[in-house]
Specification:
- By secondary structure, this protein is mostly helical.
- The chain has one domain (17-176).
- It is built from 6 helices and no strands.
- The longest helix has 39 residues, at 138-176.
- The relative contact order is 0.13.
Length: 177
Amino acid sequence: MWPIRGTPAATPDGYRMLDIALYLLAAALIIGGLVGTVLPALPGLPMIFGGIWLAAAVDNYQHLGLWWLLLLGGLAALGVAVDFVSASLGAKRVGASKAAIWGATLGTLVGMFFGLPGLILGPFVGALLGEFGSSGSVLRSAHVGIGTWLGLLFGALLKLVLSLLILALAAFGWWLA
């Protein structure tokens, strides 16, 4: 793809060493992204999309063109949005107060800075504290906190499904060309 002075032009099968290295980097991004859809410490869907985009660029966009990349990027953006709002929607689903929904959102944002435990506990604690401040009921607050956590779990499952869909569509688009 990109000429580099002083490197061998190609391997016996026609690929340049840089292309092979970039394809390996793309594969590492995709695999890391799959791990990131399960472990919230990594930005899974953006990594998957970045790996697919890198592979398409190395290929000079012969297999995956603009429309495929726009579709895959839109699905990745949808997954990122789902990740941010899933806890709040879970809280809303169980009839949480506005304070609990804001607490879940704030807990998600603050939890991002504390790794995996923060991402798991942040929305729960935020919704619990917000609901307790609003209603004063410990039982009601616990109910809202659990609903928030279930929303977060549903969002993670939806993110995993979206990541597999993105990979399937990318493979299909690559195969079509």
